[in-house]
Each structure stands twice: as structure tokens, then as C-alpha cells.
Amino acid sequence: MHELKIAEELSAMVSHHAAEAGLRIVERVNISVGQFVQIVPDLLEAAFSIAAVESVASAARLEIEIIAAEMRCRRCGTEYRPDDDLHACTACGSTDIDVVHGKELFIKSIEGE
Amino acid sequence: MKDILDRNQNKAEEVRSLLREKKVMMVNIISSPGAGKTTLLERTCEAMADKTRIGVIEGDVATDRDARRLQKYNIPIVCINTGGGCHLDSHSISKVLGHFDLDQTDLLFVENVGNLICPSQFDLGETFKLAVVSTAEGDDKPAKYPMLFTGARAVILNKTDLIPYTNFNVAAFESDIVSLNPGITIIKTSATGGEGTDRWIGWLTSQLESFRAG
Fold first, then answer.
1. Which of A10, A33, A87 to mutate to test the interface with B (most CBs of B within 10 A)?
2. How much is the pTM?
3. Domain regions of chain A by residue span
């Protein structure tokens, strides 16, 4: 249940940025989560609603965008979406690969007034 | 755009640079409960504690049982009870580093909370992550928990003595790991009986030498 720790960090950051931007109430928090980041969205939403109690974001909705994994082969340069349990290059089979997308975990925007 | 685990990452970098300055190699050991992390540490202390200055941070949900098992080696041990928490983070590591004399330490092990998911998400400032898998868990663990295996420098396949009593397929296990992380080192051991631990000690010693040289 590392979602709770992530929710606590998120709540602290939201409060910090809301104060900087002069927001009294945060209505919506938009975050992006890569496919390889092992988070259960429902659990993160529930954890955030607990972590944000008594903060400016206590009634905020958490919108989670999942970013699909994308790899780049270091041998042939192909960019591709990997299969679930096989990450090797779909063109040449090489396992010498970079993860271009899939490890993201960030706040995109905060909405409020 | 702001990284949600920024605070953890910043503290991890602080820990990493302190340990680099003090020439302390930190190994973050991650496995399921019962894979054999503590037994592996026992064998490691037996083989290395006379010439290498070892320290251990024990992360456990409750009790100091693992820490007590290592007391016989007369090494500094700090126990972090997470009280239900499923992983350690860089702040918890940073807080306990003061209990070690880092000028008198070569190698610091962190025995993370037994769990294949949560600990792999949090950088502790380690030099590298070590994954430990026991054969009784099944050969599908790399495919099912890819984050740990893509992030680890080495994986120990432990309890190889039990293979005859399981349907564990070593070739499938190895090929899944290599497809996730081609540069990873795979070492097979039976820590309880001691088989293969000499290869682990040899590999670890070479990592320590290159860390200290770099």
C-alpha cells in the first residue's frame, strides 16, 4: 500500500503549490502515472482523499492519466509499445532497450479558485 | 509538471552523495517475505565480516527478530520498525545513518521490508538494488513484478536446493529477467546450506572494489 505514501507526498505538494498560487480551494488535481509505476488508481484516489483531509484539497477530485509504456531499441532504433511481459524489441528482438515512457509519476496541473 | 516523489528523490541523492564521500557502498536488498534475505546476510557476514566493515539497517513491519539473528557477528545494526508500512523511504534511511560511524564502514546493507512492489518504487540513496527470489515462489516473479527486476543490478535465485520439489523452470526465469534487464547479474545460491554463496561473495567483493576505486 505505497499508494498512501504517494498520496501524502501529493497532498503536501498540492497544498504547497495552492498556497503559492493563492488558491483557497483546490477542485481538481491532474496527475500522470506511467504504466510501469505500480499504482492501483482506485487505491491512490482513496488514499488521496484521506491524506488531503483538513487541507485546501479536501474536496478535490484526483484525475489520473495513465501513460502507456514506450521503448526505444538501442540497436535498431525502433520505437515500440512492449507486450505485457516481453519488453524485447518487436523489430529485431534485442533486449538492449531504453524506456522512453512508462515510469512517469508527476502532477500535471492543479485547478481551483 | 512536478515529480510527486521529489522529496524522496532529493533526500535519496543527499544520502547517495554522503555515502560516496565516505566511500560506503549501500546495498538495498528487496524480496518477498521469506525469500532468504537474512540468511543471505548471515552467510555474507560469516565470509566477510573479518576483513570488511559491515553495517546493517533492518527494515521490518514489527519485531527485531532479523536484527537479533545478526547480532552474533558484532556489527552495527539499526532496526527500523515501519509499524505496518510496506517499504522504507530515503527519509527513514537518512534519519538512522547517524547511528553508524561512516568513516569506519565499508559496506552497508539495507534489508528492506519483505515486499516485491512498494520498495522498488522508493530510491533510498543506495549504490544498487539487489533482488532476492526463492525457488518456492515460482519462476514467474520477474514477469509479474518487472519494476524490481528492471531496477536491480543483480538477482539472487535462492533455495536452489528445493528445485527438485517444485516446478521451477530456471531457464524461463533467467530468460524473463534478461528480457527485462539485459545487464543484470544472476547468482544461484542455497543460503541455508551455503551452496553458491562463494559466487555471491566474489561478485559482491568485486562490486565493492570497483565502487571504492571509482
1. A87
2. 0.89
3. 3-68+101-112
